[in-house]
UniProtKB/TrEMBL annotation:
Keywords: Acyltransferase, Transferase. This is GNAT family N-acetyltransferase. It comes from Pseudoxanthomonas putridarboris. Residues 1-136 form the N-acetyltransferase domain. InterPro entries: Acyl_CoA_acyltransferase (IPR016181), Bact_Acetyltransf (IPR050832), GNAT_dom (IPR000182). It comes from the Bacteria.
Length: 155
């Protein structure tokens, strides 16, 4: 069965799923007022979700993207990310950005889809989360900012 992706009101976003990508419920909820929310479904089951916010001047930020653990490594994350990239390209965006940890599969995931590191937000995870955030047993300190710039020849 193919993945169906649709926009839903941000307040209807599947919180338990989004918390897989960002451990702070308060932080995720703070994204809702300005975000577009997209959910990916396989039949009746929601398998993925993401939140995207406008930054201004044709730029958007992917605030959160997550796939249910049972559906990870099945290509659903790639389908959702490519769909979001295409959606904003078609809407006239000039770029889409994302922030992620300095290592791990997420970094490679974004880079495989054309995102390039454009900045380092030093001590982001220390300054913005009350509890330490760990990835693969290693504490995250800095956030890498990655950007995908759209060009006229992108199909």
């Amino acid at each position: 069965m193919s993945l169906q992706i649709q926009e839903v009101p941000a307040m209807s976003a599947p919180m338990e799923l989004l918390l897989l990508a960002d451990p702070s419920e308060d932080k995720v909820r703070s994204y809702f007022p300005r975000s577009k929310c997209f959910v990916a479904s396989n039949g009746e089951a929601v398998v993925g979700a993401c939140l995207v916010q406008p930054l201004g001047a044709g730029a958007y930020e992917l605030m959160s993207i997550a796939i249910q653990p049972a559906h990870q490594k099945s290509g659903h994350g790639t389908v959702l990310l490519k769909w979001v990239i295409d959606f904003f390209r078609k809407s006239g965006a000039s770029q889409i950005e994302v922030g992620t940890g300095t290592f791990g599969y997420q970094l490679a995931f974004y880079q495989r889809h054309g995102f390039r590191v454009t900045a380092i937000d030093r001590d982001f995870f220390i300054k913005n989360y009350p509890e330490p955030v760990f990835e693969d047993g290693i504490q995250l300190f800095d956030m890498l900012r990655l950007t995908l710039r759209y060009t006229a020849d992108v199909a």
